[in-house]
Design a protein that fits this description.
mainly alpha; 4 helices; 168 residues
Length: 168
């Protein structure tokens, strides 16, 4: 207990006087990467000439300006990415609404078809019209699946017809 009190007192004295204290046993000091200058603004009292101080201050200012620009770019990239994510989210919400509407419509159609099979006489006019519309839509899909004749196939069929039925 006495040792920890002494350590905390010495740490306070070192901090107050601005001295560099050695880390306590078991503690590690946060090391700066090699070649990394201190981030603190240079003080005039740390330099013997005005020229050295001006050079150190310019170097520090350039480093701070570069860092500030880097932070601005990073934040701008984050804003752009966030906006893109919001757009993706909104498009997916819209797509989900469309799909939910389609599911609701298909569910309604399934109920009408079940009723048409089980009790056709119980169908209302609207339900009968919906069944007819579904049948027409199905026929249209079937027709679109049939390939249309090409010009070559039309010419060949015309030649066959003309052989079978010669024109005088």
């Amino acid at each position: 207990s006495t040792q920890s009190t002494w350590d905390s007192t010495m740490a306070a004295v070192v901090k107050f006087e601005g001295l560099e204290a050695e880390p306590r046993s078991g503690e590690k000091r946060k090391a700066r990467a090699k070649g990394q200058p201190s981030r603190k603004q240079p003080a005039r009292s740390d330099f013997s000439t005005e020229r050295e101080y001006a050079q150190a201050w310019q170097k520090w200012r350039l480093s701070r300006d570069n860092n500030n620009n880097s932070v601005k770019r990073s934040r701008q990239q984050l804003r752009v990415e966030q906006k893109r994510q919001e757009q993706v989210c909104q498009s997916r919400l819209n797509e989900n609404e469309e799909l939910e509407s389609e599911v609701h419509s298909l569910h309604r159609d399934a109920k009408v078809l079940i009723k048409a099979i089980s009790k056709p006489s119980a169908l209302s006019r609207d339900e009968l019209e919906r069944v007819r519309l579904m049948m027409l839509e199905e026929q249209a899909r079937d027709m679109s699946a049939v390939p249309l004749p090409t010009a070559t196939s039309l010419r060949e069929s015309f030649l066959e017809d003309s052989r079978l039925f010669p024109v005088n």
